[in-house]
Amino acid sequence: MCGIVGFIGAEEAAPILLDGLARLEYRGYDSAGLAVYSPEDGLKVVKAKGRLRVLSDIVEGGKSIRGAVGLGHTRWATHGEPSDVNAHPHVGMSGRVAVVHNGIIENFAQIKEFLESKGVRFVSQTDTEVVAQLLEYYYRGDIMEAVTKVLHRIEGAYALGILCADCPDQLIAARKDSPLILGCGDGFSFLASDVTAFLKYTREVCYLEDGEIAVLTREGIQVYSHPYLQPVEKERHHVDWEVSAAEKGGYEHFMAKEIMEQPKAFRDTVFPRIQNGRVALEELRLSASYLREIDKIYIIACGSSYHVGMVAKYILEKLLRKPVEVTLASEFRYCDPLVTHRTLCLVISQSGETIDTLAALREAKRLGGRILSIVNVVGSSIARESDDVLYTWAGPEIAVATTKAYSTQLAVIYLIALRFAELLDTIGAVEYAALVEELLTLPSKMERVLENREAIQYYASIYFNHESIFFIGRNIDYAIGLEGSLKLKEISYIHSEAYAAGELKHGTISLIQPGTLVVALASCVPLFDKLVSNVVEVKSRGADVLGLTVESRGEIFQKTVDHVITVPDTHPMLLPSLDVIPMQLFAYYVALMRGCDIDKPRNLAKSVTVE
Ligand code: M6R
Fold first, then answer.
1. Superfamily of domain 453-593
2. pTM for the whole structure
């Protein structure tokens, strides 16, 4: 979704803002803009539809727009088509106040009508312009007073950056339900949607909470509560991420780099949490007696994180013997969920800012559930609002299509399953030890799967022209099929569906015809023969079949399918970590051969911060 960056310091702002916006490109956008102030030129705004490069060319890489304070924005259109005029920043009628915004102002139509009745003329179709116009309407020489009045009036979700030409020695930031992070430097300050925008300059950050307003100056940042403007003492945090972690490092795409980083990300997430052969989750405060009391685990997430939840259901139910329900966060809020104080809600999110997941978390909490979240971005909203957090140590994930975050989320599921099973005494010592031992071998097995990537590239070269692809599997293989199918469609734009293989006969098999590609996942050994029967069914209707199974079944599977990809054998519960890699690579190479914009697929945003 939209990317925001603001800078105030001693250097020229525009090149810094453009660099920050480039680092936020991954969020998805369709236009971009800058507002910069200098005493000589006043408040200058430049906006352009299309890629950031278009804006950068107009302002000559930032050289033609002078000033040491400014705001930048990449817009992901919601209200009004992508265009120069709808791009942010937006200014009020007198050109005194510039605003950048991420989120949705839900009551913008009423405010617009009110302002128009007062003679205000609007130039864009956006909801954001009402904020700029309303600020000027309320402005009587005290910008903070105007800001508080505006925040009182607007409804919805927002992260706002505000620059007023009458007080150019400060930037103002405010948030509600949209991410905004503040960067504290020596002689400069930043605001941004994401720390990667300014990581090059500072690692010292503060997290703005809902209902807070920040005033950024060259000397520092002061935060106030809304509406009474009481000063708030903010804790500073140090961000450990390396700048290079958010760069391509020689790879053509972030997605390729992140796929290759999975063994390391898995190691970083798991190894420090295994001590003397036991899973140690020191961050968790859940006791054995609490776990015995809970009658249900509710898993809440969106997209790929939801697919991790689908895998988790199989693992947790098997090891804990407790019912697990997996639900899409966007549905949870509206389904009158059965959550009580005996429900443990497992909330999964890479970004920690997905608005549907955050809203579902709040609803689950309101109903009395206890929240344990699995999050990648430290200090994100979901992490802050959870009762307990287990971080995935994947590092920054930039490609829209998640890969390493997915793998580390799975890793945390294994850790939770083992630790809870130990506390509940639902696992025998032998199985526990075997699982821990196997967990430690997974990164090197993942490396072996990655070494086989040329074979997967070859299969992608055979099948990249297909317009419809089906993924079938049973049990955990079905959950991996869901993820394989999502990866493929989001970056290659091929229509694809994942089916529980046993369901095919209940309808979908009518779509199978000569030349249809079916990706058959058969790594779940106890169900191998059943899956082979399903493959025979689709083959006899003319389908091409690309199979995936474990090495020990590779030869036999080869007799039924057209091509087979194998992964090393491991404990059945841990197979998803190996199976998912060929699915990611297949999607990646297919998209590459189709010439798609892999890191920034059309219509998609990395972090979905509007409902
Ligand atoms: O940041 P989150 O994990 O909450 O994001 C959830 C989904 O938006 C995300 O997994 C999405 O489906 C990815 N683009 C999948 O690759």
1. Glucose-6-phosphate isomerase like protein; domain 1 (3.40.50.10490)
2. 0.83
